[in-house]
Amino acid sequence: xxxxxxxxxxxxxxxxxxxxxxxxxxxxxxxxxxxxxxxxxxxxxxxxxxxxxxxxxxxxxxxxxxxxxxxxxxxxxxxxxxxxxxxxxxxxxxxxxxxxxxxxxxxxxxxxxxxxxxxxxxxxxxxxxxxxxxxxxxxxxxxxxxxxxxxxxxxxxxxxxxxxxxxxxxxxxxxxxxxxxxxxxxxxxxxxxxxxx
Amino acid sequence: xxxxxxxxxxxxxxxxxxxxxxxxxxxxxxxxxxxxxxxxxxxxxxxxxxxxxxxxxxxxxxxxxxxxxxxxxxxxxxxxxxxxxxxxxxxxxxxxxxxxxxxxxxxxxxxxxxxxxxxxxxxxxxxxxxxxxxxxxxxxxxxxxxxxxxxxxxxxxxxxxxxxxxxxxxxxxxxxxxxxxxxxxxxxxxxxxxxxx
Amino acid sequence: xxxxxxxxxxxxxxxxxxxxxxxxxxxxxxxxxxxxxxxxxxxxxxxxxxxxxxxxxxxxxxxxxxxxxxxxxxxxxxxxxxxxxxxxxxxxxxxxxxxxxxxxxxxxxxxxxxxxxxxxxxxxxxxxxxxxxxxxxxxxxxxxxxxxxxxxxxxxxxxxxxxxxxxxxxxxxxxxxxxxxxxxxxxxxxxxxxxxx
Amino acid sequence: xxxxxxxxxxxxxxxxxxxxxxxxxxxxxxxxxxxxxxxxxxxxxxxxxxxxxxxxxxxxxxxxxxxxxxxxxxxxxxxxxxxxxxxxxxxxxxxxxxxxxxxxxxxxxxxxxxxxxxxxxxxxxxxxxxxxxxxxxxxxxxxxxxxxxxxxxxxxxxxxxxxxxxxxxxxxxxxxxxxxxxxxxxxxxxxxxxxxx
DNA sequence: ACTTAAACGAGACGGTACGTCCCGTCTTTGC
DNA sequence: GCAAAGACGGGACGTACCGTCTCGTTTAAGT
Lengths: 197, 197, 197, 197
Hints:
The structure is a homotetramer of 197-residue chains. Chain A is mainly α. The first copy, chain A, has one domain: Tetracycline Repressor, domain 2. Chain A contains nine helices and no strands. In chain A, helix 1 packs across helix 4 and helix 5 runs parallel beside helix 8 (153-170). The first copy, chain A, is elongated, with a radius of gyration of 20 Å. Chains in contact: A-B, C-D. Chain A binds chain B through residues 32-34, 102-103, 106-107, 109-115, 123, 127, 154-155, 157-159, 161-167, 169-173, 177, 180-181, 184-185, 187-189, 191-192, and chain B through 32-34, 102-103, 106-107, 109-115, 123, 127, 154-155, 157-159, 161-167, 169-173, 177, 180-181, 184-185, 187-189, 191-192. The structure holds a DNA duplex (31 and 31 nucleotides).
């Protein structure tokens, strides 16, 4: 069995992983996505460029890893109603999206959709995860007998999270109004799924 | 008004405008946004680079002009109901968004949000225009007495178009199901705005 | 015939050729061969790196062109005797070799012999030229009736110029003694070629 | 005296010394001086890079050791005449120089003259040694009464060995003709030093 | 036998330079 | 008198090597 023989050679220094991620995030915040250079990240992190390219095949992979590393989406605690669960999901997503400036998110999305490999990883991780979260709360609602018909998860996905993305990424809307938007969209979707007939 | 002073010298050859736009669209389709170079566009169009930069200040402006040049959004004809008007808006937007591959749209959005000037023009053109269209149909509905309360245009904007964008740009969902999505979102938003109590 | 079609496009700026050559020579003198970088040359010349790589395929070609550009070896004026002619050749070569520091000459020779293309050009230019010069003065001597036997040009070449190279490049000997060395080697070789029996 | 305190710890493995030297020579022959990398040597020798740098301070020292390690120049046995002694010296030097390809010798010379420390060691070892050999045979000739005047060792050095170096390193001349060249230069120099008046 | 200390293969590290590519501008020459 | 062809300054990219530095393992010498 071709085990990776982990004992051989000097192991990767995990402090360097953190230094790279940290420098990347700082520089994204300071200069924006378009002006981020690998040399600047290496310099800021006190690291050689080789250490970066040993970990990531391209600049985009580095940014991807540095920005979305710990987005661990979990289904929200059961709030007792579909509306409440959906609102919780919206608020979580909104909070994550507002953590980074919009140019970073757009840059990232552009790179993700420019590179097939990155795109597959993005879908397989984030989209799948969101879908799972939505499926979970829909199953809860079904167990409660709230649903009038078996819903289409993908459509619910778009109906629920689309407005949040649009508000933050396209309209560059006021973040202060996101809670209202979240509640509104959650209510609307919940109403549609539980319509008396 | 800074009119291009068209009387002096040789007038611009409008065939060149078309050649540039055509070459840009072809190369975007063939290689994708990230691999598009101005040299390649000039070469494909049989045109000098100077001819391009005489028309556009940056590569992004060129792509912008070549891809979204004729997005003339007009309020849809009065369908007689808010729900019908909203569905018409959704279908128009969906049709426009599906005209270009998603990597082009993401690339453009990234560049738009990386450059303040471009961003302002984008908002001032497309967002404002969409807002105006939505305002128009909401005013119609108000005139009909359909609305229960004065709606918040920006929120309606996000609620209505967000899911369409999300489906096309993030989920990379099946275009065949867009008509259903359009009708669903239009119904949902119309219901929310015309709720009986 | 694949002629370079010089009419099309902006022509190369010959001032840039000079700026590159000048910067190269200055930096070689200041820092030495091993520490010469293309970026430094470009910076010093006030030129982009692309302008350099448009002219030369590699750093070595650039240095080659910058350092040996105008070494136009001509047969010396007829001094009336073989000994005098040979001494003149030696002095010319010695003057050329002492124009550059020895580390540059060694670096250049190393690069020349590391790259077949450069090596061929070096031989085809300098070695051939030296051989021609020697052939010329030997023909003069033969015309004068000085020679006792038809000499082997290649060997005369080595016997005459070898000591000069060795003194300058290997021994790093005092340049002040080169005139004496030149006269000595010229006498020796002339004596060998004109031996009374 | 900073002796390596050989008692403690694991002793150096002399097989590794040989493996390094062997791999270095093989790779020099296969790829040439310019393309030799320490990693490649380590890999070929089945050795870690640290084992190399434990033995040699730089790549150049490693190559130096691998290529000229056993150049033990001794004064030749007394042949009975200055001419014979000088010819013997030339032949020995020629044999040593032809052992390595010319690009290796040029690379080494370039590195030697690029680094003061290495340069000093080279002079202090090889040049001094050659000078001693020449001094020895000149002293023999003086004892025999062959010399007409006290010779200048440095100049004799250049006159004698310069042509051999030039033939091998610059002209890349036929090795088959080196014996003739050796005898010719030895005769010439001997004649010059023993000229009847 | 057991400890100790250095050498070992492997490979990650900081740093530096390379040669390539593209942008947006500038400059000839030809149509 | 404009436009194609293409050279220009600038600057980032990803690669390659150098000489150094851990890792965990192996090998002798000294206890």
